Amino acid sequence: MNDSEHPPSSHRPSVWERLADAAVDHFRVFRVRRTRYRHARDRHEGEFVIIEANDWVNVLALTDDGRMLLVRQFRFGIHDFTLEIPGGVIETGEDPVAAGVRELREETGYAGRAARLLAQVRPNPAIQANVCHIVLVEGCVHVGETQFDPNEEIEVSLLPIDEVVAKAERGEIKHSLVVDALFYLRAWREGRMK
Amino acid sequence: MNDSEHPPSSHRPSVWERLADAAVDHFRVFRVRRTRYRHARDRHEGEFVIIEANDWVNVLALTDDGRMLLVRQFRFGIHDFTLEIPGGVIETGEDPVAAGVRELREETGYAGRAARLLAQVRPNPAIQANVCHIVLVEGCVHVGETQFDPNEEIEVSLLPIDEVVAKAERGEIKHSLVVDALFYLRAWREGRMK
Fold first, then answer.
1. CATH class held by domain B56-189
2. Which residue in B46, B120, B125 is closest to A171 by CB distance?
3. What 8-state DSSP symbol labels residue A26?
4. Pick from B80, B121, B158: which is nearest to A176 by CB?
5. Which of A22, A29, B108, B149 is in the most buried spot, having the most CB atoms within 10 Å?
6. Predicted structure pTM score
7. Which residues have C-beta within 8 Å of that of residue A166, sequence separation ≥ 6?
8. Where are the domains of chain A?
């Protein structure tokens, strides 16, 4: 085994310069764009396809008695129900924390005492340009009725935080961006995130 | 605050029946499909767009001295470099663990003593149909040269597992599917995953 930090097969990657850009098609929640690139060192060109979408927000909504809000809904991508945390698409120009508070209110009827941006992940850097913001809302209480978007149909539940983590570990929660939020929630509970 | 598991605004979601299906366009690593659905209860119809791709695999490749293999590469989606774990697209019909072992070997020149499927996540159940398999490979050693795909240019490094987790907590690793793998790696190290 090689003991250096960079093993012998390591190969320093180059930046690619963006050349031409063409929107391929606009779908409802994303756009597909085909872009021509040139490698910065060897000048070789290639065409790559990127999915563009507004940023997303996912909300870790906690109650003071150590429970979390979950939403269950039908998801067309996998043609099945998922158990997730509240969240959605951030409107153009909207602040991510404000968007998280809004989605939480709309999807669950809950609001919290304090909201903050906990972490940011890239859903898929290879083919997707956007960011998923993970917002933490503490002290959540039920404040009113839900306000669903068209075609949105959501079942809300409250579960102990440890039970939510156990569900992810058992594969009952499989949404990658929800598992990310649980990773950062744990780091925050253990005092490693501000 | 409401104390039941299902708060008052909860609303049981319905299945949607799949009606017509039309492939919209084929891109290199995914296809976009527009599908017409009908709600099972109120018979109302809607059209939704799904991104279809082969399944993906991400590899937690560990050495016996407690380090992990990381790859750094230019990612077109975010037009920047990322620090990730090895992985890639599973070929049609290929076993996920075999695909993980293959990607690890091609991207890093490393191979391990034992490989197993640790967990599976859904990259985005709302708009994406595929699965990302998380494969754990223990006892990794350098066995030969890398074999990059066309346009693949990868810098390999080996870092202590705890340092990789710290990088994710500091936001230096932001790839959602890599953070997922670190969530399951921790559960495995703490004896909660088989």
1. alpha beta
2. B120
3. E
4. B121
5. B108
6. 0.90
7. none
8. 16-52, 56-189
